[in-house]
Amino acid sequence: MKAALAVLAREFRLALRSGGGAGLGIAFFVMLVPLVPFGIGPDPDRLAPVAPGTLWIGALLASLLSLDRLFQADSEDGTLDILALSPLPLEGLVALKALAHWMTTGLPLVAVAPALGLTLSLPGPAYPWLVASLAAGTPALSFLGAIGAALTVGIRRGGLLLSLLVLPLYVPTLIFGARAVVAAAGGQDPLPAFLLLSGLSLFILALAPFAAAQALRVQLR
Amino acid sequence: MGFRVTDLSCARSGRAVLRGVGFAIPEGRARLLRGPNGAGKTTLLRVLAGLLAPSAGEAELDGARLAAEPERYGENLAYCGHLDSLKPQLTVGENLRFWAALFGGGPLGPAVAAFDLEPLLDRPVHACSAGQKRRAGLARLLLAPRRLWLLDEPTVSLDTAAVARLAAAIRAHCAGGGMALVATHLPLDLGPAGEGPGAGPVELAPVEAAELATGADGDPFLTGSWA
C-alpha cells in the first residue's frame, strides 16, 4: 500500500514538473476543439450534430499525446529495471502508472469538456452525459494506451507506432462514448450506450495491466 | 545459505553470451567480476538479477532458486546497473524517499551518510554531476536491507574518495553477513570480505563468436538449423 502510494505520488510529481505531460493533453484539447467552428462555420445547426463526435475525438487524441513517455522515460534512465525488481508486481505498477496518467491527463479533459461543448453549441440535455461518458471512457483510453506504450518502450520515436497500435483499439470506446452523447442531444435514451461504454471500460481496466506487464517483460529481455 | 550459480548459460539474439558459468559466494564475502569488454559481465548480472532469462543453469540465493521461486529469490537482492535510476526532474531526496517507500526501507539517514549526500538532498538530479548522480544511485543499496548486491561498474565516474566510500559500504554490508558481486576494472579494497576461501575474483571469459546458441532458446533461423 505504501509502495503503491509512493508510485502514484511520484507519477504526479513527474507529470507536474517541467517536461511532464500533464499540461500537454489539456492544452491540445482546448486548442483543437475551438478550431472546429472556424473550419465548418459558426451555424449552431451544423455544429450541434458534430459536437459529440468532435469532443470525443479531441479527448481521445489529447490523451494519446503524452502516452509515448509512459514507460519510455523510465526505461531510458534505468528506473524500469529497478521497478521491475521491486516487491510491487509489474501488473500493479502498470495499473498505477495508467491510473496516474488518467488522473493527470484524462480527468482534466473531463473537467473542461463542458466549456468546450458550449463553443460547439452542444444541446443542453447532453452536458451531463458528455461528462459521464468521458469520465467512464477516458480511463479505458489510458489503460489501452499503456499496452501500446509498453510494446513501443524500446523504440526511439515510438510515438507514431504507438498511435498506429492504439488508435484502432480506441474505436469501440469512441463509438459508445460518442453515441451516448449523441443520443442525449437528440432526446433519445443515452443509457444503453453508456452502459455498454462502462462495461467496455471495466473490461479494459481489468485486462490491460496484464497485457501491458507481459509486453514490458518481453521488452526487458 | 549463501549464493551459488551453477552451469549458467544465456543466449541473446541467437548468440551465446554466457556458457557454463559457475561460482559461489559464501556469506559475508564479496567477489569481483572480471573479464574483458564483451565477456558478458552485464548480461550475467542482469540474469542473476532476474531481468533476463537464462537458457540453462540455475542460481540459488539462500536456498531460493531463481527459476523455481523468482519472488523469494528476488526479494533478497539489490541490483545497480549502468544507469543510476534517478529521475532528473526530482531532487536527490525525493528520488531516495521514493525508492525507500517502494522497497519498504527505513529512514534515509544511513544511506545519506554513507555516500555523503546531505548537501545534495534538495538539489534536482539534473543539476548534479555524473559522480554525484552515481553516489545517489548507489545509496539505494542501503535504503532497504538486501542479502546480495549485484553491482555493474559501480565505480564509473566516482572520484577516489567516493570509491573508498563504496568499498566501505560493501565491507560493512559483508560484515553483516551480506554478499556482493561487483563488476569493476578498478582494484577495490574489500578488506576481510575479499579474503578467505571462496573469495577472489570471478573471471569471465568471452564465449567464442563462432559458438552459436543451440537448443530450445536459440532462434532456429539465426542458428542456421532452420534451413
Set down the secondary structure blueprint.
The complex is a heterodimer of chains A (221) and B (227).
Chain A: H1 2-16, H2 22-32, H3 35-40, H4 44-65, H5 69-76, H6 79-85, H7 90-119, H8 126-151, H9 159-185, H10 191-220
Chain B: E1 3-12, E2 15-25, E3 30-34, H1 41-49, E4 56-61, E5 64-65, H2 70-74, E6 77-80, H3 92-102, H4 109-114, H5 130-139, E7 148-152, H6 160-175, E8 179-183, E9 202-203, H7 220-223
Parallel strand pairs in B: 3-8, 3-9, 6-7, 7-8
Antiparallel strand pairs in B: 1-2, 1-4, 4-5
Can you tell me about this structure?
Chain B: It comes from Amaricoccus solimangrovi. Chain B: One of its GO terms (molecular function) is transmembrane transporter activity. Chain B: This is Heme ABC exporter ATP-binding protein CcmA. Chain B: InterPro entries: AAA+_ATPase, ABC_transporter-like_ATP-bd, ABC_transporter-like_CS, ABC_transptr_haem_export_CcmA, P-loop_NTPase. Chain A has 221 residues and is mainly alpha-helical. Chain A has one domain. The mean pLDDT of chain A is 91. Chain A contains 10 helices and no strands. Helices cover 27% and strands 22% of the residues of chain B. Chain B has 227 residues and is an alpha/beta fold. The longest helix of chain B has 16 residues, at 160-175. The interface between A and B is medium-sized, with 26 and 28 residues.
